[in-house]
Amino acid sequence: QVQLVESGGRLVQPGGSLRLSCTVSGSINVIYRMGWYRQAPGSQRDFVATIGRSGITNYANSVTGRFTISRDGAKNTAYLQMNSLKPEDTAVYFCHASYPTIGADFWGQGTQVTVSS
Question: What value, to the nearest 5°, has the Cα angle with vertex 34 and ends 31 and 37?
Answer without folding.
Answer: 150
